[in-house]
Design goal:
By secondary structure, this protein is an alpha/beta fold. The chain has 16 helices and 8 strands. β7, α14 and β8 form a beta-alpha-beta unit.
Length: 389
């Protein structure tokens, strides 16, 4: 397989010299764990104390990793990326809400992004987080098979109704819908609910997509069992595969509560698990659709090679590659330049509300060995190329 991800001219073709300099500065900061810890603490304090820091955040980390403060704000970014063949997934990245009114607001925003996706070829997917539609504690209690109180049952019924409303709308408008994965202790209840939506709305093709975090050693087994169920009941599987986003939290909780960690023993084991699951899905593409969410170049090459071996067209609508906005442009833009389906997750929302997402992004980058240094090397290569060095 030809190595295409080193072409920085394609990777950064949309970035001005100023934007490239900002990216270099940001990843330099993120490369330092102490700076990330200090920066996180200072940012949290400034926001809680209502200090006027939004302008600074907006001009630096926010604009690099986010599309805007609202969905309309994102459209210029969406259109710009699509000139290079890179699609967008509008991701309302407001986290940690606990009230019914906030869940209803997230529902309305998701319905709005489905409408955007219906009207705009550059937005092929809509997305939401399960905890955007209901309290994490509620999912956890259900997953643990604990009985709900009458008021909790009423609350859960509303969660189910929100899921059904967006999945029905996505089905009617023929818009694929990604549902993100979260912490393992709430995931069982979310999985059951998403499977119910697949059973209902994936009769003709994959519209509803669940997400598997492959740093969990049990997920390939889960996928195989779901496949058996789908064959028996006659529905298609839509699945986004990612490595995972809550590793430290997962390991800490497992240690504190004295149960085996759900996380693979090593990065290598996670990589093997991820690639094996991609392989399984490609082998069964007649009944599945895959959104391969990865910043890993090797996994991307392996999927490209699999598609080539199987005679699967680069633009087959059942196979998508995905990365986060502000990261791994060398993968996204070079894949698109070579004719593959690729979409960037484009987070948006009020600056203060999106900060938990941004902080998680920075912490993830410091914990993934080599990710930030790879970004820095690529940016430096492109800066040097532009200066004629």
């Amino acid at each position: 397989m030809e190595k295409i991800f080193n072409d920085t001219q394609v990777a950064f073709s949309l970035k001005s010299d100023t934007e490239l300099d900002r990216a270099y500065f940001l990843f330099k900061l993120i490369d330092s764990q102490p700076l990330v810890r200090i920066g996180t603490a200072v940012t949290n304090f400034a926001i809680k104390a209502h200090l006027p820091v939004e302008g600074l955040i907006r001009a630096t980390v926010f604009d690099h990793f986010c599309g805007g403060v609202n969905e309309n704000d994102c459209l210029s970014v969406v259109d710009k990326m699509f000139t290079k063949g890179v699609s967008s997934v509008l991701d309302y990245s407001v986290e940690g809400k606990e009230e019914e009114a906030q869940f209803d607001a997230a529902l309305e925003m998701t319905l709005k992004t489905i409408e955007f996706a219906k009207e705009k070829k550059a937005i092929p997917f809509a997305v939401f987080k399960p905890t955007g539609f209901g309290r994490l504690d509620l999912y956890e209690k259900l997953g643990a098979k604990e009985p709900l109180t009458a008021s909790e049952q009423s609350e859960w019924d509303k969660v189910v109704e929100r899921f059904d409303t967006v999945c029905k709308e996505a089905h009617q408008k023929d818009v694929a819908l990604l549902i993100d994965a979260e912490e393992s202790w709430m995931q069982d209840a979310a999985d059951d609910l998403v499977t119910e939506m697949m059973r209902k709305y994936n009769k003709e093709k994959a519209i509803v997509f669940n997400t598997l975090q492959m740093y969990r050693w049990d997920r390939l087994d889960y996928l195989e069992k779901l496949h058996e169920q789908a064959k028996a009941e006659g529905f298609y599987i839509g699945m986004k595969l990612v490595r995972g986003a809550y590793m430290e939290k997962e390991n800490t909780r497992a240690e504190e509560k004295g149960y085996p960690s759900p996380i693979c023993v090593s990065k290598e084991a996670t990589d093997i698990n991820y690639d094996a699951s991609v392989h399984y899905m490609i082998e069964h593409l007649d009944s599945m659709a895959i959104f391969a969410g990865t910043h890993n170049e090797e996994s991307s090459y392996k999927l490209m090679e699999l598609m080539h071996q199987k005679g699967i067209q680069k633009n087959d609508p059942r196979v998508w590659f995905g990365q986060l906005y502000g990261m791994s442009d060398n993968i996204s833009y070079n894949l698109a330049s070579n004719g593959y389906n690729v979409a960037k997750y484009l987070p948006f929302g009020p600056v203060r509300d999106v900060m938990p997402y941004l902080i998680r992004r920075a912490e993830e980058n410091t914990s993934v060995a080599g990710q930030t240094s790879r970004e820095l090397t690529l940016i430096k290569t492109e800066r040097d190329r532009r200066k004629g060095k």
